[in-house]
Amino acid sequence: MSIDEDLPLxxxxxxxxxxxxxxxxxxxxxxxxxLIHFCxxxxxxxxxxxxxxxxxxxxxxxxxxxxxxxxxxxxxxxxSIVRAAAYLNANAxxxxxxxxxxxxxxxxxLRRFSxxxxxxxxxxxxxxxxxxxxxxxxxxxxxxxIREVKRHFPNQGFHRRLVQLAGGWxxxxxxxxxxxxxx
Length: 183
Description:
Elements: H1 8-14, H2 18-21, H3 25-41, H4 51-63, H5 67-70, H6 77-90, H7 97-105, H8 119-132, H9 143-152, H10 158-169
């Protein structure tokens, strides 16, 4: 499994959001890269992996947590989905919208995503969990590969920032402390 440090689509998509993301930009960008690489490494679970699947992963990866910064909310799945759908529409990729929306909406699903028509959704969910768990959850990826991806795309305070954001959200929303979690 190789590490591709040159994924220009990531920077093309994230560049307009750099100001909104602010000082968290480096950490978020690296999280996106780690997530994408873990998806690429899990691709054998996608029967029809091709260049379109690769682009869908990159697009969903860029937008999956963006609502935290674009809309200043920890209930970020709905705005992240809206931003991704707008991007797909602006780039004449509307046919991809249902799958990309599912990838984003289900990436914090606690149980396996089981609709085989959308194999990328489960791969995306697993890849995000690998990164969010700091590599403790591996889904069959080698610890060596996970460490190498993390070395190429360091955390830059991303996980600490998520904890800070959660700590600010939970007291104000005690009935929905982690609104992004899904069964």
